[in-house]
Design a protein that fits this description.
Layout: E1 7-12, H1 19-33, E2 40-45, H2 51-58, E3 63-67, H3 84-88, E4 94-97, H4 100-105, H5 110-122, E5 126-131, H6 135-139, H7 143-155, H8 160-163, E6 167-170, H9 184-200, E7 208-211, H10 216-223, E8 230-233, H11 240-256
Parallel strand pairs: 1-2, 1-8, 2-3, 3-4, 4-5, 5-6, 6-7, 7-8
Helix pairs in contact: 1-2, 1-11, 5-7, 7-9, 10-11
The structure holds phosphoenolpyruvate.
């Protein structure tokens, strides 16, 4: 029997949330997560100002929390930036790096994302490294080349000991926030390709999450794929019923796989 990897479901709130609404959401997620099978890991990545609130409301739960980005620097004259050790001060354990919205709207290069991954690891956090192609790139048959280049840039900077500490999220840009998820076959195909890269690096069990319009209706089918270890969830992570239903789908798969 191959070793069974845990299922991981992480919410990416993006730039959403206010204190009062967050409190309702965080408490409901903490409560719902308590009933999930043990090998389902649940996390939320919140806007920086709400890290303290996440810490206060999740500290006694099994839900972990984190940031959606960090600076490529550790300290210094970088107005507006937030360093990974600052995120650690709020009890966080996760940080997303290389989300397509950072790559596209903030011009983050593959090299910058690789450096940010190093900063996150140095701080003792788990980086969730996002990779994904545009629709044009997919239609041109460039998906493997694009996601391979994005992942390789990160892996090239890491030792095998560091590489085993990352999480990778495959997020096709055309599926993010569009309501149109990749099919489970499309996602599995890319995940198998990414798994090959991780195996070559000596990190075969790195969790590989799928992100892009995951909903309660499609989560279980996606999570059943052999190389899909869970999801990075945007829009649906803002509605606790939907987010918990997705976590339950991960739970259902984890007990039958
Ligand atoms: C995301 O932005 O990480 C994401 C997966 O968004 P959505 O679930 O809304 O497509």
């Amino acid at each position: 029997m191959p070793k069974q990897r845990a299922k991981v479901v992480v919410g990416n709130w993006k730039m959403h949330g206010r204190l009062a609404d967050n409190a309702v959401l965080l408490k409901a997620v903490a409560q719902g997560a308590a009933d999930l099978p043990e090998n389902v890991l649940v996390g939320v990545c919140v806007p920086f100002p709400y890290l303290a609130q996440a810490q206060a409301l999740l500290a006694d739960s099994r839900v972990v929390w984190g940031a959606q980005d960090v600076s490529a620097h550790t300290e210094g004259a970088y107005t507006g930036e937030v360093a990974a050790p600052m995120v650690v001060d709020y009890g966080a354990s996760l940080a997303i790096v290389g989300h397509s919205e950072r790559r596209n709207y903030h011009g983050e290069s593959v090299e910058l994302v690789a450096v940010k991954t190093q900063r996150v690891l140095e701080a003792g956090l788990t980086p969730i490294v996002c990779v994904g192609e545009t629709l044009e790139q997919r239609d041109a048959g460039e998906t493997s080349q694009v996601v391979g280049t994005q992942l390789d840039a990160v892996l090239a900077k890491l030792s095998p000991q560091e590489a085993v500490r990352i999480v990778v999220a495959y997020e096709p840009i055309w599926a993010i926030g569009t309501g149109e998820s990749a099919t489970s076959q499309q996602a599995q195909e890319v995940h198998a390709f990414l798994r090959g890269r991780l195996v070559a690096k000596g990190a075969p069990d790195v969790p590989l999450l799928y992100g892009g319009s995951v909903k309660p209706e499609n989560a279980e089918e996606l999570f059943r794929q052999p190389d899909i270890d869970g999801g990075l969830i945007g829009g649906a992570s803002l509605k606790y019923k939907d987010f918990l239903a997705i976590c339950e789908a991960a739970g259902a798969v984890s007990v039958t796989q």
